[in-house]
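Tip: read the tokens left to right.
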């Protein structure tokens, strides 16, 4: 299946629920058993899987990351967004989701999030579905 690309507009720092988009790609692929990779091609953003039942979790994650990675005057990166690079490296650029019976094997409370650490920006992310191949 061909890689699907999505574009979104972000705020300064935010987590955008992209679960519906990911599930739609899986459904449209027709794959019953395989893997789905969600990938972010940016160095100051990332992809994570976390709770999607309570929006306060997103707030708390962003607060925790802000406290874990404070801006420091010792940073040398000319653009001044070293903190965003650190957060991106910590969260990661991709997530892999198992597919079974044509559905993502996400937990009851799990959702897939695009994490912005350096916005506002126009961003992209890709979704690729891979089917299990019998040997």
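Filled-in amino acids:
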């Amino acid at each position: 299946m061909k890689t699907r690309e999505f574009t979104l507009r972000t705020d300064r720092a935010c987590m955008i629920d992209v679960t519906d988009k990911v599930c739609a790609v899986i459904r449209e692929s027709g794959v019953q058993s395989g893997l789905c990779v969600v990938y972010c091609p940016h160095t100051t953003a990332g992809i994570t899987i976390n709770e999607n039942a309570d929006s306060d979790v997103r707030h708390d994650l962003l607060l925790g990351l802000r406290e874990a990675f404070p801006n420091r005057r010792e940073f040398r990166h000319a653009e001044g967004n070293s903190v965003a690079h650190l957060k991106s490296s910590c969260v990661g650029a991709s997530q892999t989701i198992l597919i079974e019976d044509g559905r993502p094997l996400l937990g009851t409370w799990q959702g897939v999030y695009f994490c912005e650490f350096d916005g506002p920006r126009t961003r992209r992310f890709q979704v690729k579905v891979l089917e299990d191949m019998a040997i």
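The chain has one domain: 4-131. The CA atoms of residues 50 and 69 lie 20 Å apart.
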